[in-house]
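Hello Y.,

Per our agreement to keep a running log of every chain we model this quarter, I'm adding this entry. I've kept the format consistent with earlier entries: sequence first, then predicted structure.
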Amino acid sequence: MKLDAHVHTRHSGRTSLYPLSLIMRESYNRPEAVYRRAKARGMDLVAITDHDCIAGALSLADRPDVIVGCEVTAGFPADGVRVHLTVLDLTERQFLEIDRRRGDVSVLMPYLRQQGIFTSLNHVASRVNGPVTATHVAALVPWLDALEVRNGSRLVVQNRTAAALADATGLIPVGGSDAHTMRGIGQTWVEAPRATDRASFLRELRAGRVTAGGRHGHYFTMASDILRLAANLTGEQVVALARRPSDWRRHAMFLGTAIGLPLVMVPLAMAIGHFVLEARFNQSLLVDLVARPSSRRLPAVARLAAVNEVSA
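Predicted structure for the entry above:
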């Protein structure tokens, strides 16, 4: 059985890129459309992992082939570094507690372990997490079940780094498209060959009897997603204006969107620079992982290490 373990919908909120964050969503995918596309592309199970929200996943949770998930933004408060963790098969009550604790990994990670919630670290070799170092990674590894080794939006070299790290640490390899548009859904996945239903898939996943497969990312996938997001933004503004034609704010928003459309060429050009910087960050993290400087101890890292020693 296959699962695309990393997918976003409109419930992921606004994009983090300012000033686009004022008007543009992180994703315009609707949960039902995600479900249909995933199934059409051969996914036996469907998971929605929105940023710090499970509303989209809960809208499909009554289906036997759906796994409730979330991409949790977890922080190291001492230096502001944030990492993205996928958590799968959780309840509403667990989500509320996760959301309360996610500002400090030293509080969050023991809770995830205590609750037995399957947890993976996403796109470890990407700048999207911030300036992650070997110190941060080493602090998280003992608390993780898995590492995302195949991300459909990241470069081959970044996924290769993640795969090498998973192999070195014994973490379970998982994969997902990280789709913010409909393009990538079901193109990258984690597969459990022996699983026959949702329950057996989760058992196989926890046991590590899975493989990650599918596509990697590159410049053209990002360029395609940028154009699709721009088109979705325009479409949303047109629909909003049609529903409330007398609202001057809708007219102003539509006009601003129309005027700003040519600016889409700017992020298309910046995408090239983005991947150059991604490759450099990947190389920097590789060097740091090899050096593994133990002298740099963040407070959250020290607390995690202490808790881990006690629980061991």
